[in-house]
Specification:
The protein contains 7 helices and 7 strands, in the order E-E-H-H-E-E-E-E-E-H-H-H-H-H. It starts with a strand and ends in a 6-residue tail after the last helix. A hairpin with a 4-residue loop joins strand 6 and strand 7. The chain has a 3-stranded antiparallel beta sheet with strand order 3-6-7. A two-stranded antiparallel ribbon has the order 1-2. A two-stranded antiparallel ribbon has the order 4-5. Helix 2 runs antiparallel to helix 4, helix 2 runs antiparallel to helix 7 and helix 4 runs antiparallel to helix 6. It has one domain: Transferase(Phosphotransferase), domain 1. It is mainly alpha-helical. Its cofactor is Mn(2+); Mg(2+).
Length: 240
């Protein structure tokens, strides 16, 4: 809280992350498998933290982001991600069973919208449904990260999800046709399957993209799977 010319100003001071957004970072950086897994794990840890209600004096309500995408994720100097831009988030507290949807009619970024949002079938009165749309978007972010990961010396240029199916600024109708009517999901590069970690990440992606929201993985489930993968990478090599 500062005073300038005798008028009070409220300032919000946040950390500065010089790597910029994950979107920017992926444009200019090809990843190794370890970095890829680190980025993916830190995003899901952030999502679990949002999705889970924490009780007690230092508690927080459960929060669904509703606009998760690589442009809204920042990369810290240690190459861990943090989730930013909670302008569209919804909050839920079990105690009061109060769902705060805010009064924002904008529901996120069209390219990352889950099928039930595009078809307007989402249950707007149910907090769980918003968490499921975050998982759909997480799968797309995971796809963006893995495509920029080098396997056997090969890596793709950065592209946004559905780059080959919709225009660069897709309309609601463009996305609805591709995601709901044609039920397309992004193409997973074959080369990922030659690496055990990337192969496991490809499987997670596909389990984030079920048309039926209830069939999708939870953030906690994904976090546990990635933790196991991390542990498998960290096993000390046997001495020669």
């Amino acid at each position: 809280m500062t005073s300038r010319n005798s008028s009070t100003q409220l300032w919000l001071i946040t950390h500065y992350h010089e790597n910029g957004s994950l979107y920017d970072y992926l444009q200019r950086t090809a990843l190794d498998v370890e970095t890829c897994l680190g980025l993916a794990s830190s995003v899901i840890c952030g999502l679990v933290h949002l999705h889970v209600e924490i009780f007690g004096t230092q508690g927080k309500p459960a929060i669904a982001h509703r606009d998760l995408k690589s442009r809204n994720i920042l990369v810290k100097s240690n190459r861990q991600c943090c989730i930013a831009d909670l302008g569209l988030a919804v909050m839920h507290s079990q105690g009061s069973d109060y769902l705060d949807i805010g009064n924002n009619p904008r529901v996120g970024t069209k390219r990352y919208m889950a099928p039930e949002v595009l078809s307007e079938q989402i249950r707007t009165d149910c907090f769980e449904s918003y968490k499921k749309t975050d998982i759909w978007a997480y799968g797309l972010v995971l796809w963006e990260i893995t495509r920029r990961t080098v396997v056997n010396g090969i890596v793709e240029e950065y592209r946004p999800p559905f780059f080959d199916a919709v225009p660069s600024d897709p309309s609601f109708e463009d996305m609805k046709k591709v995601v709901c009517i044609d039920q397309q999901t992004p193409v997973v590069p074959n080369r990922l399957f030659s690496d055990p970690v990337l192969s496991a990440l490809a499987k997670i992606m596909k389990e984030c993209w079920y048309q039926s929201p209830s069939a999708r993985l939870t953030a906690l489930r994904i976090k546990k799977t990635l933790k196991k993968l991390n542990n498998s990478l960290e096993k000390p090599k046997p001495e020669q």
